[in-house]
Please model this.
Amino acid sequence: MAGDLKGRWELLVGIMLTLYTPYAAASQIADVCSNFHTAGIFRGGSLHVQFLLYTSHSRDCGQVIQVNGHNTLETSHFNASLGTKIIIHGFRVLGTKPSWIDTLIDALLDVEDVNVLAVDWVHGSTAKYQNAVENVPKLSLEVAVLINSLLDAGATEKSVHLIGASLGAHVAGHVGQLFGGRLGRITGLDPAGFRFTEASPEERLDPGDAVFVEVIHTDTDTFGIRIPVGHVDFYINGGIDQPGCPYNLYKYMICDHMRSVSIYINAVLGLCSYIGYPCPSYDKFHTGECVTCTNSLLPSCPLIGQEQIALTSGNNTLLSEARLFMMTTPRNPYCAHHVLLEFTLTESKNISTNINIQLRSDTYSTRTSINIPRYKDQGKTVVALEGPLCQVHTVVIWVPTTFSSLWRKKPDVSGRLCVSELPMSDRNEMVCLPKTLTLKGNSRKMEELATKCK
Model:
């Protein structure tokens, strides 16, 4: 009996010693799930940072990673042999967790086995915007400490990918600068414009902040920065007024800004191939002046979310920065097939001519217009379709009513319409209506478009 008691006592002591070793204590910390803090609009301002790790082993559990004092990386699910995505949110008006964070985390883990670290700085990004701006360099230092811990654990600088939304994009830029631009990649999701548009490259996101910097612009007339700040800058619908945004004042204002996040998530998941067309301006792109992927700056038209296109295949040297333009449709996932329309007049006129065109398929229709300047015989425009051009079977064409035409007879318009899906190439050739059209008065012409899906 005494021997049995002694054996049980030794077993109990052994269990207690095991439970209270540093490794076991750290393991218990690593197993605890945490979530973003909530600041409240009257309790924000002071910087308080939390790093939450998500992996394929713990995608529903944010493991708190501590790097000051007690380092919990060793007992977390962090895998130094994998790539690491670090998500940094921006200014928080209401002091709450960004609603898109979980969706982006899931998207990143759905397509790749990676470490995902979410930077929670809700405290410090709420209340006054100016206070949040002042916290940017302070937060950058803390993220840099985190990355140094990752490097000490065996990660490489090129395996680190920073994804910053709005103000978070400039945090990513500061962090990248601290590492001399050697980090692998930065994605800026509509980087904040206020206080940064006139700032020096050292104070904002810049192409020198990482090996590859891609930027998505969706709200350059309100909250987003209008100048290019990456190796490739995608201006979605020209960077302003995103289709499908509601008229509710708050949602309308924030919708354009946050569209960059939705588009990036869709790109990560492969729901759309968001192709950017190099062009000097959105107006030139919209009027059909940039319709090919042959460009001196880039080997091809880049896709959002794929950094490989920004590297030369020979020596992995980054090419020059490029402005890229594209359109989207109003409904999520906002996929668009870009189509060029050309209307050529039988003879030019001494007044400008507008032609309205509607493209119809079995599931959607799209309406646009072409302006032909005075003394010119051709006008062009690019339109975004929800499906490929080959699904369009009917074209409706008419001359719109103008104020002067209410008492003056509309002039007859005669010409021919041709269309092509972009990019223009041997594969995507122009398809023309079989005959010249004459548009009289308020009449509308409905013609069949002979295209076939390959």
User: Anything to note?
Assistant: Helices lie at 2-19, 22-31, 101-111, 129-152, 167-178, 249-269, 282-286. Confidence is low (pLDDT under 50) at residues 1-30, 310-318. The chain has seven helices and 20 strands. The longest strand covers residues 337-345.
